[in-house]
Design brief:
This protein folds into two domains: about 60-185 and about 360-380, 3-Layer(aba) Sandwich (Rossmann fold), CATH 3.40.50.720; about 190-355 and about 390-410, Dihydrodipicolinate Reductase, domain 2 (2-Layer Sandwich), CATH 3.30.360.10. About 40% of the residues lie in helices and about 20% in strands. It has helices spanning about 10-30, 35-40, 65-75, 90-105, 120-125, 140-150, 165-175, 195-205, 235-240, 245, 250-260, 355-370, 380-400, 405-410; strands spanning about 60-65, 80-90, 110-115, 130-135, 155, 185, 210-220, 265-270, 290-295, 300-305, 320-325, 330, 335-340, 350, 405. Strand 2, helix 4 (about 90-105) and strand 3 (about 110-115) form a beta-alpha-beta unit. The longest helix is centred in the N-terminal third of the chain and has 20 residues, at about 10-30. Bound molecules: nicotinamide-adenine-dinucleotide. Nicotinamide-adenine-dinucleotide binds near residues 63, 64, 68, 188 and 231.
Amino acid sequence: MEDNSHTSRRDFLTQSAKVAAIAGLVSRQGFSAEKCEHEKLEVVAGPTPKPIRPDQTIGLGIVGAGVRTGSLLGHILGQKNMVIKAVADPHEGNRNGLLNKLKKANIPTPDVYTGSEDYRDKLLARDDIQVVFLATPCYTHGKMYLDCFAAGKHFYGEKPMCIRVDEANALVEAQKKNPKVIAQIGFQRRASERYNKGIQAIRDGAIGKPLAGRAQWAMGRTYGLPSQGTRVWMGRARLSGDWMLEQACHTWDVLCWVAGEKTPVAISGMGNREVFKHMDPERDVTDYYIANLEFPDGLLVNYEHIWFVPPRDERRWSGVYERFAGLDGGIALDEGKIFPRNKKKKPVDLGGPSGGGQNAESMKAFFNCLRSGTKPPSGVENGRRATLTGLLVRKAVYEKRRVTMKELLG
Ligand SMILES: NC(=O)c1ccc[n+]([C@@H]2O[C@H](COP(=O)([O-])OP(=O)(O)OC[C@H]3O[C@@H](n4cnc5c(N)ncnc54)[C@H](O)[C@@H]3O)[C@@H](O)[C@H]2O)c1
């Protein structure tokens, strides 16, 4: 596990220079946060994509060649009858890193686009690309995913779906206008056998009515530090949406799923944005916060997000989980375990792959949906609910008070 506490002043100054260079890159290339914030969103219906035959060779375009694309690459390459036609990313280092990985895997070198709007003007414009995989900073998602709908391309777009209410609404509208586009939002838990069985068990009454939830994202390392290359955007609330959007969106998606595909009605919270300031004065994300979420039908959830759990974690601070209790028992969705209150009944192990294996399940589900023309396990509707929940948690934490969904949507 990474230790963040040893950054020297010299490292810090070098890192600051790198951050400035990356910030310059973002604004120089015309796809700046400002542009994403102020540009009016347009929902263009776009051409209806042709159905993909079960044995057809799919032409794939990749947008964003960073860490996430690298970690999903094996699962992407594992799909049959698929050719990577093009890669778009303005960052030379990440681009070359991805091209090298493809070369090592004996994959023919795809076409390469280097401008920040090339993903749209060049990659999405190609007739031989039917499907796009996108893993770029959160502030770009809303616009890029709308562009996919407008180009009539199927896509797997990383989470969060977007970081603004109007983007979330526009994407739901775009899907309605172009219903044949298969748009899977990267919430891999939605494709997981373990989570699906757990949710079904809740619906079947395994724990009774879910009344109490406990969830956390707790680790002893953090992301978005200037030493972490392009990923410095994660340490900038404007670019990432803050952790309530960037990271905890996975948790909100699960909570809304458990609550019967409903968003919370109100949330209270508080947090600390100063935690890693000594390592990066520009950092403004909330590296520690707690929130209480009130769902309709009485479900209350207690959540903690922390990036500095102590080392040598004998007291079990760390972990990412979602747990629920009702009058008939409890369920740990992340572990796939049900604990009935009736002691005569044994705990149930739901099986299915854990964490990393869920990425494989998600990618496989996407390609199956493409070939069968069926609805993906995670789409724009649950993507919108997770975004709205994240925005409401952020509002509660920033304003240190109880805020309602009505206020957010006001
Ligand atoms: N589902 C998951 O579990 C999971 C895990 C990690 C990351 N993610 C998500 O994946 C996304 C990417 O994260 P990452 O860790 O790969 O970040 P990263 O910084 O490593 O990579 C992002 C890449 O996008 C590129 N990019 C930026 N603007 C672009 C543009 N206009 N056109 C093309 N490329 C552009 C950057 O140059 C960079 O190479 C984020 O949304 C993140 O939240 C999801």
